[in-house]
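Escalation from tier 1.

The customer reports that the assembly of two entities below gives different structure tokens on two consecutive runs. Tier 1 could not reproduce it. I'm attaching the input and our single run for tier 2 to review.
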Amino acid sequence: MRAVIPFIAVLVLVLLAFIGVEVGKLNFLFAVVIPYVAISVFTIGFISRVVKWGKSPVPFRIPTTCGQQKSLPWIKDSKIENPSSTFGVIVRMALEVLLFRSLFRNLKTEMKSGKIVYGSEKYLWLAGLAFHWSFLFVLIRHYRFFIGKVPAFIGLVEGLDSFLQVGVPLLYITDVAILAAVTYLFIRRVYLPQVRYISLPADYFPLFLIFGIAASGVLMRYFYKTHIVAVKELAMSLVSFAPKVPEGIGVIFYIHLFLVSTLIAYFPFSKLMHMGGVFMSPTRNLTGNSREKRHINPWDYPVKVHTYEEYENDFRDKMKSVGIPVEKE
Amino acid sequence: MATSKIIKPNELVVSIDYKPPMKWWMDTPAEFKPGMYCWGAKKKNLDAVNFPNARDWSPKEEDWKLPENWQEILIEGLKDKLGKYRSFRLFMDICVRCGACADKCHFFIGSGDPKNMPVLRTELMRSIYKRYFTNSGKALGRLAGARDLTLDVLKEWWYYFYQCTECRRCSVFCPYGIDTAEITLMARELINLLGLNTDWISGPVANCYLKGNHLGLEPHTIKSSIEFFLDDIETITGIKIEPTFNRKGAEILFIAPSGDLFADPGTYTAMGYLMLFHELGLDYTWSTYASEGGNFGFFTSNEMAKRLHYKVYAEAKRLGVKWIIGGECGHMWRLWHQYLDTWHGPADFLEVPVSPITGTRFEHAKSSKFIHIVEFTADLIKNGKLKLDPTRNDHLKVTWHDSCNTSRGMGFLEEPRYVLKGVCNNFYEMPENTIREKTFCCGSGTGLNASENMELRMRGGLPRANAVKYVRDKYGVNMLGNICAIDRATLKALVEYYTPDVSVAGLHELVGNALIMKGEKERTIDLRLEPLPGKEGKE
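Tier 1 run:
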């Protein structure tokens, strides 16, 4: 059930766009109004969420130390897994953000004839990496729709992405990779009992949505050709704030755009915010040198303590009787 | 209660099923299983530290005698914590439920209870956060993973947030560094607003506040406990040691976990400290006021933890020492390393620690002014300042348990291994996925080392025991070394249950055994007063 409702929701979204454009002729709504609204919601939502995180301070220095601390000079410290310098933190964060370092550690715990064994488990890491990097490549490729003269690096990205030189038009590897990765992430979620048990509708919804986006994009590129010049015209008109909806763009494009709009509008309210959050995680982005450099807690306040004086008052006689020195005789 | 009263180890292992039940977790209220939870806090102990809503209560009873506005108190408390801790707010928002943490928790591995998967433990809290603090949760309810704060939810919180030892293993594997310890800390803070502590935590907290240590040892008892060790040391070495207490003008203040003064094998570790410091002629003092390095306050609230650790610097200042050495303890070192200087610094009345024996300046502790005794000892060995006879530990085949707190909250990995290799000849590592930053908890940290929850402890300790069993079978390991007082107390029960032929020792017990002291008689017994192999009957 937790997977069915989001699946239906995405189907409804597809139908909405289809009926809206084919029957209702609401091309302007789907091509201009909704994308503008979605972008606005995304921008304001994303920023306000990050600001909200930023407003909560980091009172203590609590990195998860995954390697040797910096201590005696002859003991080799782990400069990245337990960074004591800002440079170390930057490398640690870069490895997390770009290569999913922590997920790479993943293990599989199993009970085999009464013994617990730990095996390597890299598929989630691989699928996650394929998914996110493909997404980024696809996004960069789309940049060509929004700019008059296509910059050289876009061509470079496209060239890299299609280096297999298969098919006409040339097959982009990332198109295959993103569909495969999303499919894997979905199958994993329903197939692994533990992961299925923890999954919420909010975990399935973005998967279906992104699958729908990638699938409609692939259909447009390789199967049902869209009027690409018209699409670019629309995109350019949107970014120059002079929206104009050209004729002759197929309905599949509207479906694609509507799903994209939904995704970006949904983004700030969802777990997808991990994109911004990963940079702010106090267990990863702090140095572990708290004995070398004092960390300040901005909301620190005085607390009630039991002073030595009170302690001695309680135990003075007992202390004196065994020769422990006291302040007041 | 001894471990013998609970189910047998093989029955326990067979009972574990990692497959979650058909019924979804939101529809499954917590079932309070005997042996899996601790007794409720007593009124007098909460009153002693001015905790709110103090009363005698029992988790077994249907009626928890909650204040009428308990929901309001929790929601207000939650709001307060969200505003104070970025970690908490962020971790509430960004989990994608990828499940990488699911099988990393020792309580999940040992129980199969799905709510012990770190992601789900956090979801117990996140569902409430969503319901009361996010628009999606308010509007979509269950669809967004939100639910109302009911009495069942509160009981579930209590049951499962006292089944987490804040060991941070899940955090190592999380792609966003989400640390369940941070969630459990907040959950326990909130639960404590309703007076729902456990007896085993609130008792030591009250003791520590009023008497200086968890065990409630009074000054004269501390002195007599140590004198008892001194007699044993004299029996073993022929050397009479005379340590000082609360002595003004000493160079160094030494603070150990009080567990080392109370029960074996911690007591042997304490003997090791005493012998080492005596041999060096160190100008140091014990304190009966700052007589606890550990801090059960941390298992209730940040404020209580800060209150208990006040005495560390305060006593150093009163006695006029130059710097501080801390003993072998796990969570004590997470707190000293990551919190103490922030709470009570700057310690500008102290000096940067410099070893009077080697001249080494401990630059990495130049702000906090305290070092770990193992750092101190490693430096001594490296500089050849100790005369050691590791063959005295030849009857031991030692493996090393990295404590969760020192590993994942400090990065204290090589120093103990260096000392260990210096004082014993037979050292075997447990499998790599069970040590260092991936080490497993003893199963009884954060105040779960009571006796009424023994089944929980044995389940939580299963992964550690499983790895110990592996090296025992493979190399004949018979000693489990560690640098944590809670480990010394709890691993003892764990190995008795799973691998009775393995013993537990603190590192400085092994140092004390190997240490050749000036003027000592030929040793025939070790610190446990057991015959040294090859030296029997030479008396």
